[in-house]
Amino acid sequence: MKTYSKNQLRRYPVYLRVLRELEAKGNGFVSSNQIAQLVGNSEEQVKKDLAAVSDASGMPGRGRDLRRLVHDLEAFLGYHDVTRAVLVGAGRMGQALLDYPGFQQMGLDIVAAFDSDPVKIGTRLGETEVKDVATLEEFLSLEHPDILIDCVPASAAQAIADIAVRNKVPGIWNFAPTVLDVKESTIVENVNLASSLAVLSHRIKPLLS
Amino acid sequence: MKTYSKNQLRRYPVYLRVLRELEAKGNGFVSSNQIAQLVGNSEEQVKKDLAAVSDASGMPGRGRDLRRLVHDLEAFLGYHDVTRAVLVGAGRMGQALLDYPGFQQMGLDIVAAFDSDPVKIGTRLGETEVKDVATLEEFLSLEHPDILIDCVPASAAQAIADIAVRNKVPGIWNFAPTVLDVKESTIVENVNLASSLAVLSHRIKPLLS
DNA sequence: TAGATTGTTAATCGATTAACAATC
DNA sequence: TAGATTGTTAATCGATTAACAATC
Known about the structure:
2 copies of one chain form a homodimer.
Chain A: H1 6-24, E1 29-30, H2 32-39, H3 43-51, E2 64-65, H4 66-77, E3 83-88, H5 92-99, H6 102-105, E4 108-115, E5 124-125, E6 128-132, H7 136-143, E7 147-150, H8 154-166, E8 171-174, E9 187-190, H9 193-204
Helix pairs in contact in A: 1-4, 2-3
The first copy, chain A, binds a DNA duplex through residues 5, 7-8, 31-33, 42-45, 47-48, 51, 57-64.
């Protein structure tokens, strides 16, 4: 079976973005070189990446069918299937995620939100009512979501992860600034702002006066 | 000169986290193996990574001095120097970032926030007053911050990036879901939720029923 | 057709892992 | 001392880049 490296997987949504922009402009075909220019990768890499997710082969001299390519990318990324998620921790970051309209387009449906703050419990954020985190475990055992989005403070994040693991939630999307310890049957993906900032800071270092 | 890959740079803040936890527990020394267990990398990788940022060599049989290692990591990551940033776009995401206390510890000082919404302009978010984005360019030309945090909607993100480039802001931390086109003298680091979700979705796929 | 672009194979590059002598 | 762990060199692995024949 084909395998995809982490870096490769990260590139696909980026391709999708620029392809949609080209589509919006009314283009019908794209060459790998065009895409390469727009995203800043090499042409060879673009060719390989796209060949790995689309059976439709491109036309020598013209490029690839844009519409078809967008479709195949979306299909590969799972945007055509609904992924059900629960969000825990309705702080600023949690609210930002609940608010974000882009997830819909990715097939990600945040079906419930939880918090421990009595002031927040019962309120509505967008379409979602905030439930008491004390009821999280029961909800997971009944509803079996695919993903738990962990947005609680670092000090509470492991306890939430433990509940997810106990209830066999396949994936944890971790926004808390802490390293989670989970059984290997549970997948954790970290959104680590400190890591991102480390890359940026290091690269601008030579530019600072 | 030593070079550091993107992946390597991303690992350092993760090491720092677990090391601080060990320090809080009162430990005085750590072995590479211990760290490897905690973060889930190989021992060899941990050894190489740490050797690249700390001159203090570890003691065979005991490990590395924890306090010293934490210090060296912080120094390498630039946490001991102040990096000045401006944030543009005081939506949910922007507010979440303004709120986040962790940046202080990383030496990141968000000195100003900007938005185009008249309702938001003039209000205070935490310690920062929201200014009119119309005054952004003047602010940049006078204050020369190190980083511009771009949190505006995708449709406006490029225009903000253009202003940053014009005013020679060294780094753009891009939270907008779009690919920015900048001169190569400007560094862009993208926080791309779609990419992160793509990795998670792909990895949980075999676990879904 | 000629030219552009494809898909794929081979070469290169870089990062990770394995091995091991050195040593507190 | 013996054992654990170090730092570093060599081997492996994987990903990226270069090259090129095939073709619309």
